[in-house]
Design brief:
single chain, about 260 residues, alpha+beta, Aminopeptidase, 2 domains, four-stranded antiparallel β-sheet, globular
């Protein structure tokens, strides 16, 4: 088993279901910065993939990590085994191949986040990598609106009721609508206030080139005077929806607008 660089067309040979492995997602990043990697079996057949982005830190340090707005490195591998013991052995061989490839690369910093279903990183620990568990919350959207709101904090429910009482409405929007410009403005203003470092070209490609009704959705909250005051943006695939980011107007902000938009 081995790892080598691949081009974006080879990704299509894999049965990838995650939105973060889709061709349209990967194309929002500059080709020279996004490194796509294939995992191959002994017959030189591609069975998996992952990727990283070459970030520049402090003007001269090379940091290999997931690209901006991607929650992980897009790791996927087709496991042909069924026996639990064989599955464990197979996964170890995959990680060994990844580690061997990474050992040959030149970088100053390396930090790769893996999809949340991957929890056993013994091979990386043995090779002296630092493993830092991170947590995310998954909500079952098959529940009714009442069940979901009942699981919220009382403060959250109070904020939503206040927003509704004050005449705030929420619209689902797409990049074919005039309101999309308001979403972009709210996001850029929020990133600026929070001093979030981001690439404007990548954000523009994400919102305008990648985004369609088949892979993402956005909500815009408007006050009673029809002023846009808050927004959020999510992407989705056949299995999950992912909240990526949101924004609000500093001058017209309302404590319940963001909650209602979510």
């Amino acid at each position: 088993m081995f790892v080598k660089k691949i081009d974006i067309n080879q990704i299509e040979k894999l049965d990838l279901k995650s939105v973060f492995n889709s061709i349209s997602w990967l194309k929002i990043y500059p080709k020279e910065k996004l490194i796509l990697l294939g995992i191959f079996n002994k017959n030189e057949e591609i069975i998996g993939c992952f990727y990283y982005y070459k970030h520049t830190r402090a003007k001269f340090l090379t940091h290999l990590a997931a690209p901006l707005f991607s929650p992980h490195c897009g790791f996927y591998v087709k496991d042909p085994t069924s026996n639990p013991a064989n599955k464990n052995t197979f996964k170890k061989k995959v990680f060994e191949a990844i580690i061997e490839f990474l050992d040959e690369q030149k970088y100053d910093l390396l930090s790769l986040s893996f999809p949340l279903e991957n929890i056993d990183f013994q091979e990386f620990i043995w090779r002296k990598f630092t493993i830092e568990p991170k947590y995310t919350y998954c909500l079952n959207l098959d529940k009714t609106e009442e069940e979901i709101t009942n699981n919220m904090s009382s403060e959250r429910r109070k904020n939503i009721r206040k927003a509704e009482k004050d005449g705030i409405i929420v619209k689902r929007i797409s990049n074919e609508m005039e309101e999309w410009k308001s979403l972009e403005k709210l996001l850029e203003g929020t990133f600026g206030r929070q001093k979030v470092k981001y690439n404007k070209e990548i954000l523009k490609a994400l919102l305008n080139d990648f985004s369609t009704e088949n892979n993402s959705f956005a909500f815009l909250a408007l006050d009673k005077d029809n002023n846009p005051i808050a927004c959020n943006f999510c992407v989705y695939d056949l299995e999950k929806s992912y909240y990526l980011f949101g924004g609000y107007d500093q001058e017209l902000k309302h404590e319940g607008a963001g909650a209602l938009a979510h």
